């Protein structure tokens, strides 16, 4: 699927007053995805989230549909490190940094998150794509380009999780194109800490599959 919906949401105040009380009715962990168009926005949002009864924050530096901020922050070591370090100063809760796959080397931004004090990284978000209507001879999306998601992105996601997991000491959360249990196993063998898709969640500790003989053999291969 190719979409260009951006990061539409009703805002943190609405979340505090409406969504959070509803979520607290369920026996589940609550991790809030946070986005902004400037470092100041990220910091101010983190300050608010730090006061809430939630289990963690996922710092979204990766959405390719946002016209300002997120994509620029997420494409370099320094950009990721800067915004993550500023948020880390005001956030006491677990901090996950969501990385964009639209980079030349996924390991460098991931290292920026680790060096800035992130507790984990999640990847991947959508791949930047484009479709053109040959009859109208113009892009299908009003924004020209958008984010590609779905099963087609899974091989890219597995590859990037594999690269980042080998380079970092903090946990790596895998997402992108997960449809079946076999997809989850692929991510686990790539040394993913846990895997997500839109409809269900799968967990397995990193230590469990690091001890797996096949997984060790995969990661010992140059």
Kindly describe this structure.
It is built from 9 helices and 12 strands. The strands form 3 sheets. Strands 2-3-4-5-10-11-12 form a 7-stranded mixed sheet, covered by helices on one side. A 3-stranded antiparallel sheet has the order 1-9-6, with no helix packed on it. Helices cover 39% and strands 18% of the residues. Residues 64-70 and 198-219 have low confidence and may be disordered. The chain has a single domain, classed as TIM Barrel (Alpha-Beta Barrel). The chain is α/β, with parallel strands linked by helices and 222 residues long.
CATH topology: TIM Barrel
Determine the mean pLDDT. 84
Shape: globular
Within the largest sheet, what's the order of strands?
2-3-4-5-10-11-12
CATH architecture: Alpha-Beta Barrel
Oligomer: single chain
Structural class: alpha/beta
H/E topology pattern: EHEHEHHEHEEEEEHEHEEHH
Instruction: Extract low-pLDDT stretches.
Output: 64-70, 198-219
Q: Quick one: biggest sheet?
A: 7 strands, mixed
As a percent range, the share of strand residues is 15-25%
- Rounded to the nearest angstrom, the radius of gyration is 18 Å
Helix content: 25-40%
What separation lies between the terminal Cα atoms?
34 Å
Output the CATH homologous superfamily: Aldolase class I
- For the record, the count of structural domains works out to 1
Instruction: Report the total helices.
Output: 9
